[in-house]
Write a structure and sequence with these properties.
Radius of gyration: 13 Å
Shape: elongated
Structural class: mainly alpha
Number of helices: 4
Strand content: under 5%
Distance between the termini: 27 Å
Helix content: 40-55%
Order of helices and strands: HHHH
């Protein structure tokens, strides 16, 4: 996994599903590496949310007029 996948995606990319999927996989891989620590009682996966935010994945489903990529909640259905 390269850190370039976690670089902020250009939300204007819109439904570039292959790119968004690669980014999601990179975030998931990093989350898996931290899972033992994050699964402790009382722990919160803060670093994973930081990765989600930094990669643009949290905004991806939002409409473009609200600052997102317009992917919706089901990109396979919506596009």
């Amino acid at each position: 996994m390269t850190d370039t996948l976690l670089a902020p995606r250009d939300l204007a990319d819109g439904p570039d599903l292959a790119g968004w999927v690669a980014t999601a996989r990179a975030v998931a891989d990093r989350a898996a590496e931290r899972s033992a620590e994050d699964d402790r009682p009382g722990a919160f996966p803060e670093a994973t949310f930081d990765d989600l935010r930094a990669s643009g994945l949290l905004a991806a489903p939002l409409p473009t007029d609200e600052g997102g990529a317009g992917l919706g909640t089901d990109p396979a259905r919506d596009h």
